[in-house]
Amino acid sequence: MSGYAGSVGDSVGRAVERFRARTGVDVAFAGPCPDAGDRLVISYLSGTSTRVLAGLTVVAGTGVGGKAIATRRPVRVVDYVAASAISHEYDRAVTTEGVRAVFAVPVLAGRGVAAVLYGALRRPSDFGDGILTSACDAARDAGREIAVAREVEQRMAQAAELPGWAALEIRLAYADLLALAGAATDPGLGERLREVCGRLARTAGAGADTSGGLADEARGVGRGRTVRMVRLTPRETDVLALVAVGRTNAEVGQALGLGAETVKSYLRAAMRKLGAHNRVEAVVAARAGGYLP
Questions:
Q1: What DSSP state is assigned to residue 163?
Q2: What is the DSSP-derived secondary structure letter of residue 6?
Q3: Could you read off the pLDDT of 173-215 as tens digits, one per residue?
Q4: Which structural domain range is residue 277 located in?
Q5: Taking a C-beta distance cutoff of 8 angstroms, is the pair 125, 29 a contact?
Q6: Sign of dihedral through CA atoms 1, 170, 141, 106?
Q7: CATH assignment at residue 102
Q8: H-helix or E-strand containing 188?
Q9: Residue 293: inside a domain, yes or no?
Q10: For the residues of 233-266, what is the DSSP string, one character each?
Q11: Cα 266 from chain centroid (whole Å)
Q12: Which pLDDT tens digit goes with each residue over 56-75?
């Protein structure tokens, strides 16, 4: 998969593994919902003993997962086959896998259901509050990742359609994502946001020869002096990325959770490595060197 669909799959796959590791449920599985949001296709499995669930399409309103899509709320049953609150189109697959208690949590991204996360036990159970809370947390984290991926894809598409705006759009998106990464309480989400930032930087670098502003800046640095091959730390790159879109030191510190003096220290270190005499030169050199979009 590629683009937004690939990003959804990545996020849902990670959510399945995180959730099962945290809760110890016997089986965890999940399925992304296509754009229409009227069904899901189970694509990610952990702890299953068969492949009977793989590729199963669940229609909105049916079974546990379909009911979660329709209601946009978590749904659970103590014993799947005996449950009267759900329809039973998928009993054969469930009994073949040997699970009894099942719950489903919708992964919400924007206004729609992007996927459904399932947990199951091989015995009847009403599940504890801790398990359900962990499932909702995993679904929420996945929803945030998917929403970010959607925003990035939309901005990238806009940049492609409007070449004159491409550099600015990418840089603003990069800065916004770094601020979100700095505020993220979940280390996994913060890491995912940084991965998306890397995609933006690589995309901008790939288009540097034809993107106007980026290419002009790179050529300008090249005429004045040689761009140094240096190794910026992640924090130095973060600070430069926010400086590049006009943030003051105080605003950079607020976005990244750093003190003003710490921001200045990172900025001075980056300038020294890049051979820059001021903030503008540092940003230009970092872009020319491929550190920033």
A1: G
A2: H
A3: 777 777 777 777 777 777 778 777 777 666 555 443 333 333 3
A4: 162-288
A5: no
A6: negative
A7: 3.30.450.40
A8: helix 187-206
A9: no
A10: -HHHHHHHHHHHTT--HHHHHHHHT--HHHHHHH
A11: 27
A12: 999 999 999 999 999 999 99
Q: Which two tokens stand for residue 159?
A: 């940049």
> CATH number of the domain that 188 lies in?
1.10.10.10
What tokens appear for 49 in the block?
Answer: 């003993």
d(CA 174, CA 176): 6
Containing H/E element for 274? helix 260-274
Tell me: do 64 and 113 sit in the same domain: yes
220-254 in b/e form (b: 16+ CB < 10 A) is ebeeeeebeeeebeebbbbbbbbbbbebebeebbb
Looking up tokens 């670098």 gives 205
| Count of other CB atoms within 10 angstroms of residue 41 | 14
* DSSP SS3 for 46: strand
